[in-house]
Predict the 3D structure of the following.
Amino acid sequence: MDSLKTDLVIKYSLAVAGQNDDYRDRQLGAIHLVKYVYIADLAYAQQHEGKTFTETEWRFHKFGPWSPEVFNRIEPALTEVGADKTEFSHPKYEDDFIRWTLDNDELAMQLASQLPISVSIAIQNSVRSFGSDTASLLNHVYLTKPMLRAAPGDYLDLSPEPKLDSACVETPEKAGPKPLSKKDKDDRKRKLENLRVLVRKRLEEKKRNPELILPDPLPRYDEVFKEGLACLDLEAGPPLEEGEHKAAFADDVWKSRARYDSKLP
């Protein structure tokens, strides 16, 4: 990992957050800052054959992409630029948690000038979209391609999706529709005529059929009906008891194509 570049991304992420209208979105914690560094690295890697800007090795952690090295750079980087540090405590958590704020537009401009445009734009867009909304930010990074192709504990591959060779792809100019032969034209004309005849026949039959009438007697939605539904439900097995339950999944589910291939039916 390149500490100087990592510190630069961390500082800029917090400086951009300081420009948000909602004060709550200006306060970022470690989990937010680490994810914004990942987003910056991912944007850079898409244009540099998988090489990250900070040269960090990212892993699939239970809270998404994670790097302990990036986490350890947060405090020294933000202390250097005079960011405000606030510690909070909560009865549900054993440890206190920290939030950082930095309100310095001039510094934000200086930091932006030192970053590649792909990195600065990625940080601006993501920080302004998610701010300190942990749930939305985690959902976003979990759905990135490197995460969808990996299993917990794996190192993430930030390489861009392979592109098809243009020489192997038929363009409209090279592969337009083939002209129909006289036989094909005659077959198409005959099928269209048969379809017209079928449609006219169906419409005439519909006119001859009597209108639908209400059933007599009307269906009953009473206790007998409810008891019948309950009996059908019991055939599927006894209902789950209320409470906490654990679901087990096979390890190979993480590498399933269904996680990353949107073209699957």
Residues 14 and 36 are 10 Å apart (CA to CA). The first strand starts at residue 59 and ends at 61.
